[in-house]
Design goal:
Elements lengths: L1 H22 L3 H10 L15 H7 L3 H10 L4 H5 L9 H8 L2 H8 L16 H7 L3 H10 L17 H7 L3 H10 L14 H6 L10 H10 L4 H4 L6 H12 L2 H17 L1
Length: about 270
């Protein structure tokens, strides 16, 4: 019993020293403690549930992150899989920040890390798309299993990376996602909404100021040169145009016309 108490006391001392050093930006001390005390590798803050590695990632300390990962005891994936109170691993945080360098370094340790999900059931790939970070998104995509590529693209509420890219108005990324994951155009979330519904709910994204003007043209004038000449379209109109080319018309395009008006009535 006394030995257990001594161990617990030692761990608490490690935590206090570790996190005080991290908060004060004394990263040399953090690295030194990681080197001397293997128990520091999995030590978590009581308040946030974060490890020192989480904190180094959030602080954007690329060199410190590399040193800490290098010092973590094998199997490294155990410490790298630790989630904070929101379930985010260090790789989740790196993806959210769009730090492609950290994403490369951490995911290279073990590709299973790219499949980790937080409490919202979001993968690191999902968070990169959610925050519009194309470089990090593309790198993480390369690490995703080719057998089930779409498994990384959806979270617990049914929303996909395409829903979120459009909602965040990251239109270049949305077009890229449609190109890479064509089937996502017809995925619906828990409310029954497709990504095009999200686009249709943003009338100011279209030059005309109304979703009906452009989307009706997609349905009734799809052979018009003005539609096929995408160089004349703005980013959101390019998404709608691309969507029309890959999505079944009856499932998505016509439905999205009625949806915003229905929402006004409800």
């Amino acid at each position: 019993m006394a030995f257990r108490i001594d161990q617990d006391s030692e761990l608490e001392d490690i935590k206090e020293t570790l996190f005080n050093s991290a908060i004060k930006g004394k990263w040399e001390d953090v690295v030194d403690l990681y080197r001397r005390q293997p128990r520091a590798h999995k030590a978590k803050m009581v308040v946030s549930g974060e490890t020192a590695l989480h904190m180094a990632v959030s602080a954007g300390k690329d060199d410190v992150v590399e040193q800490l990962v290098e010092l973590i005891s094998e199997p490294k994936v155990e410490a790298l899989s630790i989630g904070n109170d929101r379930g985010n691993t260090p790789l989740h945080l790196a993806a959210s920040m769009g730090n492609a360098h950290m994403c490369r370094y951490i995911s290279a340790i073990d590709t299973r890390l790219v499949a980790a999900r937080n409490r919202e059931k979001e993968t690191p790939l999902f968070l990169a798309a959610l925050h519009g970070h194309t470089d990090a998104f593309l790198w993480l995509r390369e690490k995703c299993s080719s057998n089930e590529p779409y498994e990384y693209c959806r979270r617990g509420d049914g929303k996909t990376i395409l829903h979120c890219a459009i909602a965040g108005e990251y239109f270049d990324l949305a077009i890229l996602i449609i190109d890479l994951y064509e089937d996502l155009v017809n995925y619906v979330d828990d409310k029954g909404l497709t990504p095009l519904h999200v686009l249709a709910s943003k009338p100011t994204a279209f030059r005309s100021g109304t979703h009906l003007h452009f989307i009706e043209r997609l349905i009734y004038e799809c052979k018009s040169p003005s539609i096929t000449q995408t160089t004349q379209l703005n980013d959101s109109e390019k998404i709608a145009n691309t969507y029309y080319l890959v999505a079944p018309r009856t499932l998505s395009v016509q439905a999205c016309i009625a949806w915003p008006e229905k929402q006004k009535l409800e």
